[in-house]
Design brief:
The protein has 310 residues and is an alpha/beta fold. 26% of the residues lie in helices and 15% in strands. The strands form two sheets. The chain has a seven-stranded mixed sheet, sandwiched between helices. A hairpin with a 6-residue loop joins strand 7 and strand 8 (254-255). It is globular, with a radius of gyration of 21 Å.
């Protein structure tokens, strides 16, 4: 199985820098440049002979339209793309609450939000104040997605027909999703492809996803189950919530450590970290690239084409 965790293309909010490097749950549109980034990624993936079997995306338009660009690229290349992109609220970005769309300066002055702890009306008496989503809540959403969608696909995979799964989401949430994925593998079963390295903080903290940057991992079953003293060995993850105490958003099902772990004969290899090769040579067009993209908008290249003669 190949799994790609992809960040959406550039958005109007990213360019305006009104909020943190993402727009939170604000449904920000892609810019012209963001659409080109997504199209470049789709072209790059099909030229790398990647055919998706499943595409998941956040239900916010910047993620869905990036995911759709990947599917369109497969169709143009002659592949049979997945029939539907599965849009999920689980894959949304962190909700900044009252600070959605606020200037960076107001967010950086708020130590409560920066700790990703619950803010309270007492902290900000504004009658419109809404709590920001906590780190624990994002971890719960990420664990739920892994439990409900990725683990079943891992177990159901046919060795003769490998899955290729693409998940398009948002910068902050993808970091949480990666840690939730890492958590289901025994530490000794995770490795890096030759030539890759991580910083001093380890695999749990891979850094930031650039717009349309992607993390690619390979998951495979390697022979019979290896003996282990623990049936729930997991990678240590920097999170304030133990997996055994996590509940789904419906509160009806407990995601136990055992449920969130794979047997030790499942291996994970990290192939690419923040892949950006598809953007080589892509330049911004002054006065156009940062503007909002509209569905009926002509491509920039069309303005420079010579008219056809009979």
């Amino acid at each position: 199985m190949r799994l790609l965790l992809v960040r959406h293309g550039e958005t109007v909010e990213n360019v305006a820098k009104l909020s943190l490097p993402s727009a939170g749950i604000t449904d920000s549109a892609l810019t012209v440049h963001g659409v080109l980034q997504a199209e470049r990624l789709g072209q790059y993936l099909v030229e790398s002979d990647l055919r998706s079997t499943h595409i998941f995306s956040s239900d916010l338009q910047r993620a869905f339209k990036t995911a759709d660009a990947l599917r369109v690229a497969e169709r143009k290349h002659g592949y049979n793309p997945v029939p539907d992109i599965i849009q999920l609220g689980l894959l949304r970005e962190q909700n900044f609450g009252y600070y959605e769309g606020k200037p960076v300066s107001s967010i950086l002055r708020d130590p409560v939000l920066l700790r990703s702890s619950n803010s309270t009306p007492q902290h900000n008496p504004n009658s419109e104040f809404r709590e920001a989503e906590t780190k624990e809540s994002m971890s719960t959403r990420a664990d739920t997605f892994i439990m409900d969608h990725i683990i079943p696909l891992i177990h159901a995979e046919d060795p003769r027909s490998k899955h290729t799964i693409i998940v398009v989401s948002h910068g902050i949430f993808l970091s949480n999703l990666w840690r939730s994925l890492l958590k289901i593998f025994a530490k000794q079963t995770v490795s890096l492809a030759p030539g890759l390295s991580v910083g001093s903080r380890g695999l749990e903290h891979l850094g930031w996803w650039s717009n349309t940057g992607y993390l690619e991992v390979e998951i495979h079953k390697a022979g019979p189950l290896e003996p282990t003293s623990s049936t729930a060995a997991t990678v240590a993850v920097d999170t304030a919530v133990d997996a055994a105490s996590i509940h789904t958003s419906h509160g009806a099902e407990c995601l136990t450590t055992e449920a969130l772990s794979l047997p030790s004969n499942f291996k994970l290899i990290v192939r690419t970290i923040n892949g950006m090769d598809h953007l080589k040579g892509l330049k911004r067009t002054r006065g156009v690239s940062s503007s909002k993209h509209y569905e009926d908008q002509q491509k920039i290249e069309s303005f420079f084409k010579k008219p056809e003669t009979e």
